[in-house]
Amino acid sequence: MKKNLAIGVFDSGMGGLTVLRALRRELPAESFIYLGDTARLPYGTKSRDTVKSYAMQMAQLLIQRQIKALVIACNTATTAALEHLQTTFASIPVIGVVRPGAAAAVAATRNQRIAVLATETTIATHAYQDLIRQQLPNVVIHSRACSVLVALAEEGMIDNAIAREALTHYLSGLTTEDTILLGCTHFPVFKASLRKMLPEDVELVDSADATAAVLKEQLATVALTHPNTKERGSIQYLVTDSVQRFQTIGEFFLQEPIHKSDIELVNAGGASTVT
Questions:
Q1: Which of the residues 31, 138, 191, 259 has the least number of beta carbons within 10 Å of its own beta carbon?
Q2: β-bridge mates for residue 8, sequence order
Q3: CB proximity list for 137: less than 8 A, separation 6 or greater
Q4: One fold for both 6-96+209-265 and 99-207?
Q5: Helix (H) or strand (E) segment spanning residue 198
Q6: The predicted structure's pLDDT at residue 269
Q7: CATH of region 6-96+209-265
């Protein structure tokens, strides 16, 4: 496999761009193909079987573009489909965001009281809870399904009265936790607001940086790291609906300009592209 091939990254919509941002920081020479399934978001309120099917379609579409690694930049899709995708596409590294995120929360907590904010589907799988308890058997975990935050993030409503009210609602009763794990890749856009609302000693953990470190290690292990470290890699964006909306809202998540010429509209089923 060629070292200069791109890395595929997919999410239900915009949230995975927070992961892409971390990947770019850790691996600046690598090129990426980012796929947002914006026609069928959110994944977090759908059944596990439906999400698994969607994830398979997204992975196949990226595989068709010839990638050297695949990152599932969606907590819901990771819990539903990671093992299946790793088995199906065993010839390349396939990485999810849940295990790195859980490990980061374990490393951050001081009093073993952790709150997990995620989508309904992610919470229902107990993926984060089980991984954390494997390392901290006596941990106390409070889990909150926060699907409204996904909708607010996708609308770019990240620092207004509605967003603050939603955050206040989801944080209610969390008084002894020293670590809050953002178990959805959409949620890091609320970090600034959360930081204002939480005590200074509460750690906010998201899986993006930990996932980037894992990918870097795995690429090195299989000798697929891009050899050119002098030039910054490119990004191609694929979306299944609304190029203009992705460009506008996506910049909130990526925190850098997204050029319309770099965005391609594709069929959600992954079988063909549309113009």
A1: 138
A2: 33, 70
A3: none
A4: yes
A5: none
A6: 74
A7: 3.40.50.1860
Which are the catalytic amino acids?
A: 74, 184
Q: 221 by DSSP, 3-state: which?
A: helix
Q: Look at the block and give the residue holding tokens 């300009």.
A: 257
Yes or no: say if 131 and 99 are a contact pair by the CB < 8 Å rule.
yes
Strand ordering across the sheet containing 32-36: 94-96, 67-72, 6-11, 32-36, 235-239, 263-265
DSSP codes, 173-195: T--S-SEEEE-STTGGGGHHHHH
pLDDT tens per residue, range 125-177: 999 999 999 999 999 999 999 989 999 998 889 999 999 999 999 999 999 99
Class in CATH terms, 99-207: alpha beta
Q: Is the pTM of this model over 0.70?
A: yes
Torsion of CA 119, 215, 253, 118, to 10 degrees: 10
Which residues lie below 8 Å from residue 54, measured CB to CB, with a gap of 6+? 12, 37, 40, 43, 46, 77
- Tokens standing for 267? 């069929």
* Sign of the four-CA dihedral 96, 102, 107, 108: positive
